[in-house]
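2024-03-11 09:14:02 INFO worker-7 job=invfold-0412 stage=load source=structure_tokens
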């Protein structure tokens, strides 16, 4: 994590205004560091992303999938978990479940599409701090996604994903979690062809 220390400028302040220098060095700078650490952000720039989770487990009963994440890595307080679910093993437009600090969730998924054809679902997970990029993915099944199927009778083709965080709302930027960019601009007006 980039550190806030004041450098040469703080030394100059201490020489010119000793009491202000003491206030900055002993109170203000440590307080800013503590707030940043407790909020899982950096005092300057971004935190390094956390390591990817160790495993994603899925257990199915009826139309409930119990998804858990095993994450044995060292973590700073403030880690947030995301699970993405897709009927496509390439996760081209995954549906995002933000678990917050939890490493497990019961998720209801439809068994069949609108035509009654059974869905095969895939799951992956990643971790993110408030002030970092998302970690790499961990798939249910290990290095490559393993499919699973629900055991109910609901026919429903899910709506298109709309993504998460500052990712595009077209749902095609999976793995974005809280966001990979600080600000996503609003879409501009559409132009007619030839303008």
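2024-03-11 09:14:09 INFO worker-7 stage=emit residues=195
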């Amino acid at each position: 994590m980039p550190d806030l220390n004041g450098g040469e400028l703080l030394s100059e302040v201490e020489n010119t205004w000793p009491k202000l220098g003491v206030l900055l060095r002993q109170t203000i700078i440590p307080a800013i560091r503590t707030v940043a650490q407790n909020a899982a952000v950096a005092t300057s720039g971004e935190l390094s992303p956390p390591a990817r989770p160790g495993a994603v487990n899925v257990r199915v009963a009826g139309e409930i999938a119990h998804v858990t994440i095993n994450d044995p890595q060292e973590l700073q307080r403030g880690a947030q978990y995301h699970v993405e679910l897709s009927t496509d093993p390439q996760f081209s437009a995954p549906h995002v479940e933000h678990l917050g600090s939890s490493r497990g969730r019961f998720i209801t998924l439809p068994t069949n599409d609108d035509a009654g054809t059974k869905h095969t679902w895939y799951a992956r997970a990643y971790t993110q701090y408030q002030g970092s990029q998302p970690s790499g993915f961990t798939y249910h099944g290990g290095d490559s996604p393993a499919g699973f199927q629900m055991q109910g009778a609901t026919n429903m083709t899910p709506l298109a994903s709309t993504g998460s965080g500052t990712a595009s709302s077209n749902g095609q930027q999976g793995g974005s979690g809280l966001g990979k960019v600080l600000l996503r601009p609003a879409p501009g007006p559409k132009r007619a062809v030839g303008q």
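2024-03-11 09:14:09 INFO worker-7 stage=report msg="The two ends are 47 Å apart (CA to CA)."
2024-03-11 09:14:10 INFO worker-7 job finished
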